[in-house]
Amino acid sequence: MTLELVTGNHAAGYALSVAGEANRGARGAACGIYPITPQTEIVEFVAKYPFSKGRVIAVESEHSAMGVSIGASMAGARAFTASSSNGLAYMTENIMVAGFYRLPIVLAAVNRTLGPPWNIWADQGDTLYLRDFPWIQLYCETNQEVLDSTLLAFRLAEDRRILLPVMVVMDAFILSHTQMETELPEQELVDRYLPPLSLPHELNLNRPTTVGGLTWPRETMSQRIEVDEAMERVPAVYEEHRASFKQIFGRDPGAAVSTFETEDAESVLVTSGTIASTALEVVRGRRAAGEKIGMVKMKMFRPFPGDRLLDACPHVRKFGVLDRDYAAGLGGVWWHDLRATLQGPRDGAMVQNYLTGVCGGDVTPAMINEVIDDLLARRSAGKPVWKGIDK
User: Fold this and answer.
1) DSSP 266
2) Rounded CA gap, 105 and 148, in Å?
3) Which of 1, 17, 64, 243 is the most buried (most CB within 10 A)?
4) In a domain, 136, yes or no
């Protein structure tokens, strides 16, 4: 492996490319591409990659980019694409289709604020609004995690116990355009980790099938139940492929839920993405000062690993959820899922929402300290608290 200084976009493009090349002994790779800031560099990298057996198809829209990936995946190719923000919104119909067709497509999504008004900075709302579709969602903190999660995503998506597409997510500019030291694995290691794709329901001239036909309610509900059962298996299967990743690459791609000092913590910050880096340093300092506070980093959003979060926080009575997103009139999306998780198992816990870095605002150590001060002083939860805005 070589250690290089690369951007998050470069890391994602490299991982998509070597994963596609690893399928050269089967039906190859395919990618539909369409540019949108800030993910354009990903598809530019993939478009220049010298695949032994693969096609990169430039199309006229994000909707068609996912359409190409759907068709390629149905034919048994290892398929992937990338997008952001309103591009994801335009792609939405085919994102849904890919999930319900149970196609193991990997999508690199660079979080950018949905417009209007037009804004190119980081906000997780563009991927979180896709939360009800049958897609696995993984949120990354570093460029290395982007690369590693993308490789793991193919292994997870293509596992016959799962067969669901995966979205690998990173913050716009904070990761996508920022260089970090990143280990880039050689093709031989990727080949060892990613076996050739054998899709059980790929289109086959010798076994004619109908795709996308009309079904009755009973059959459609049966399909939804199968999706639900696959989603329930995801956390355990993820851990299997995480262990295999560590064995082959000598690195940990990260747990679905990572914790810091939560064993005896009475209050905990719940974070995701790059906010976790800032929050960790602040929490470490407050810990050193004697405060019983911890931190949880959520890598997996779908399926929501609520049981793992609760197991990691046995004594926590106060949760402060930092959301880089906003659901109109309802507060943060991560906050809602955590509140639902706590109902029953932890009814007495206080869960306070903090809207931080929404629409691309900076999340500074001072802001995290303000959040902790507010959380520790509270006797009960209130409305979501907006941070980083002067009124």
Assistant:
1) S
2) 16
3) 17
4) yes
* Tens of pLDDT, residues 203-225: 988 888 888 889 999 999 999 99
195 lies in the same domain as 273: no
Which residue carries 């980081």 as its tokens? Answer: 122
Residue-wise pLDDT tens digits, 46-101: 999 999 999 999 999 999 999 999 999 999 999 999 999 999 999 999 999 999 99
**In 3-state terms, what secondary structure has residue 168?**
strand
CATH number at residue 376: 3.40.50.920
Burial of 202 (0-12, 13-18, 19+ CB in 10 A): middle
Q: Which amino acid is at 172?
A: A
Q: Do 76 and 23 share a domain, yes or no?
A: yes
Percentage of the chain lying above the pLDDT 90 cut: 93
Domain that holds residue 330: 257-386
Q: What percent of the chain has pLDDT over 70?
A: 99
Closest CA to 323 of 266, 363, 377: 363
Confidence at residue 390, expressed as pLDDT on a 0 to 100 scale: 61
CA-to-CA distance for 277 and 281, rounded, in angstroms?
A: 7
Instruction: Give me the amino acid identity at 108.
Output: A
